[in-house]
Design goal:
The structure is a single chain. 37% of the residues lie in helices and 33% in strands. By secondary structure, the protein is of the alpha+beta class. The strands form three sheets. The protein has a four-stranded antiparallel sheet, covered by helices on one side. A three-stranded antiparallel sheet has the order 5-6-7, covered by helices on one side. A hairpin with a 2-residue loop joins β1 and β2.
């Protein structure tokens, strides 16, 4: 058995989100040297179940195996049918199991990708449920940095308690970039309210849910944003008024001083 090849594949499986539970099965299959083989994996995210089939194939010229793809089959709690999607695995642009799950739920993930020329670029990916490729997979839409969605800027529009801590803010942004529906604490009318949010790059915004996972309509979300904007304007207005008052008094002193100077 090619030990280095096994160790590489073991780590690749682990960091693709499938953990360490498939290690023994992987080793046994590589020892048997079949042309190709498949490993089964099961995971749950909340109340959703995701079964994955990991496909490995041996090189035509060496004893090395390659982890080529995995088929994710998702069964949501209230759904009557399963949803299937193949995610291809290679040197670059890999999508982890959790990222794949988030994509299959319609959420967007942020990735550093490599183009055909080998240059790295950043983009948001989101599944297009209206288009499929020749293999029957849903295509992925891309929203590049020049599209205009600024996650940090959009997050700052909301009264999120976690933004008061640099560490919590960093964790929040990282979670949203992975496509998670993240729990946050809104500071509203002097009280704390549990909210959930997810990135929505296509509409350059965030989708916000209440504590019962009911989506807050854009109007409600906009009211929160507008309320914060009004508070900021009031604060700026008070600061500006304070500056004007200072200038007013300074002007009086200046005129008085000037008058004395002339009289002398």
């Amino acid at each position: 058995m090619n030990e280095k090849n096994f160790e590489y594949l073991r780590d690749q499986v682990k960091y693709s989100g499938f953990g360490e539970g498939l290690e023994n099965q992987l080793k046994e299959n590589i020892k048997r040297q079949p042309p190709e083989f498949t490993l089964q994996h099961q995971a749950t995210f909340g109340k959703d179940e995701v079964n994955s089939a990991l496909h490995f194939k041996r090189s035509a010229t060496t004893d090395m195996y390659f982890f080529n793809s995995y088929m994710a089959s998702m069964k949501q709690e209230l759904a009557t049918e399963k949803m299937n999607q193949i995610f291809y695995v290679g040197k670059d642009n890999n999508i982890t199991l959790k990222e794949g799950y988030n994509l299959m739920n319609g959420r967007a993930i942020n990735k550093d990708l490599t183009n055909k020329e080998g240059k790295i670029y950043n983009a948001w990916l989101q599944m297009d449920f209206k288009q499929t490729d020749s293999a029957g997979n849903f295509k992925l839409k891309q929203f590049h940095s020049n599209y205009g969605f600024d996650l940090e800027k959009e997050v700052a529009k909301h009264p999120i308690k976690e933004l008061q801590s640099t560490q919590d803010k960093s964790r929040l942004l990282d979670s949203l970039q992975k496509g998670n529906r993240q729990a946050v604490t809104f500071m509203e009318k002097g009280s704390e309210q549990r909210r959930y949010m997810e990135a929505n790059p296509q509409f350059k915004s965030l989708t916000v849910y209440d504590a019962n996972m009911q989506k807050l309509h854009n109007r409600q979300s906009q009211q929160v944003v507008q309320s914060n904007a009004n508070k900021q304007e009031q604060k700026n207005g008070r600061e500006l008024a304070g500056d004007d008052e200072k200038d007013h008094h300074s002007g009086k002193k200046a005129k008085k001083s000037k008058g004395i100077s002339i009289s002398q």
